[in-house]
Amino acid sequence: MSNGKKALLLRPIQKKMTYERIVFTDLGVTVELSTFALQGKVTEQHAILHVEPRSEHFAGQFHRICEAEQALLQHPQCTNSHTIFKRYFLSDATNQEAIVREEINQMRDTCSVSCIGQPPLDGSKVAAWLYMVTDMEVQHTEGFVQASHNGYCHLWQMGVCRPEGDSAQQTTRLLLDYETTLGHYGATLADNCIRTWFYVRDVDTQYAGMVRARRENFIEQGLTPQTHYIASTGIGGLPADTRALIQLGTYALTGFQPAQQHYLCAKTHLNPTYEYGVTFERGTTMDYGDRRHIYISGTASINNRGEVVHVGDIIGQTHRMWENVEALLAEAGSSFADVAQIIVYLRDTADYDTVCRLFHEKFPTTPYVITLAPVCRPTWLIEMECVAIQAAQHPFPDF
Question: Engineering a disulfide at 301: which of 33, 163, 276, 317 sits with its beta carbon 3.0 to 4.6 angstroms away?
């Protein structure tokens, strides 16, 4: 696998990302939709769904979200789309996941689904993030949702827990199981995993065990500061199973050449993560013949010495976080104009109104959701992650 730490600059070509806001008034659901479309190519869409609370129990709100998902697939912009994965942000995962699974089974949904206790902070009990594509062969097998096209195989596995032992033991088991399953596809974690999400119950006390186990596992897999790590978010989140301290989500890819993947550093703004004992890349790019994917890991208000910036100041931290993400995107030859979706994590619910106003002003059309999810350092008040897609021309097979 390539260990290049800088992504190649792109030759600018016409922007292909569009944004749309769809309101299903009867359902009380608003969809923020981004669409990346190239003529005759695979179309990609990210949707964030927000539901009006309407003083309603969870089952009612979730049912309306599901009806909106079905209505969205009938929308002119989405009629040929297939949902690859979806994530539900829940206010009480332990009591709500069974309702989610029952409804999904009735829908005969074949995508990869994760439920995580990260309450949306708009007053509702549930929000959703959907990733949809056109013109791919999609199947559910061996714990993965597999989407194939043009020689590539995209492997999504969400919402996995191994609820035995402490956070380090659970992390170790999750990674070993994942590596075994990847082996069924002739893939490895080191060579094929593009993106991970580690959700940690009580992040202030359990995060250290996850970090230690991940670091030890990565060393065994040959992942070091001299090779590369994996784009990741490690954040507070409550799995539905009360015994689970860690929940894992993953995205892997087969069929690509090492030269297609690069890693982002933005050393003017951020330091390498291994300097403070963690093992993930700040961002990863994947180049295809017709586009570039950019995966920005969970990013907070940090400087290039690994120090928290603007301690106690939510406005200052938000602006520095944006500055850091913008620097990572710029290193990839991109900008916020190419961002398809954003997830925002807050430690303190009292900061919601301020952050909501700031994001509405800066990203009036980009899909985003703001959730309650403590960041891994207590003095970090906010973190964000995002995905960007940029039209490009590379000497590789198209997406």
Answer: 317
258/56 Cα distance (integer angstroms): 50
The two counts, helices (H) then strands (E), for the chain are 7, 18
111 contact partners, CB below 8 Å, separation of at least 6: 83, 84, 85, 86, 138, 140, 145, 156
Instruction: Report yes or no on 4 lying in a domain.
Output: no
> What are the residues facing 345 on neighbouring strands?
371, 383
- Distance separating alpha carbons of residues 318 and 307, to the nearest angstrom: 15
At 108, the pLDDT band (50, 70, 90 cuts) reads confident
- Whether 398 maps to a domain, the answer reads no
> Range of 195's domain?
17-391
Neighbours of 99 (CB within 10 A): 17
What is the pLDDT of the chain when averaged over all its residues?
Answer: 95
CA 114 to chain centre: 11
Separation of alpha carbons 327 and 266, rounded Å: 6
Q: What is the CATH number of the domain that holds 290?
A: 3.30.1330.40
The domain total for the chain is 1
Contact 266, 282 (CB under 8 A): yes
11 inside domain: no
Q: Are 337 and 344 in contact (CB under 8 A)?
A: no
Q: What sign results for the dihedral spanned by CA atoms 274, 294, 359, 85?
A: negative
For the full predicted model, state whether its pTM sits above 0.90. Answer: yes
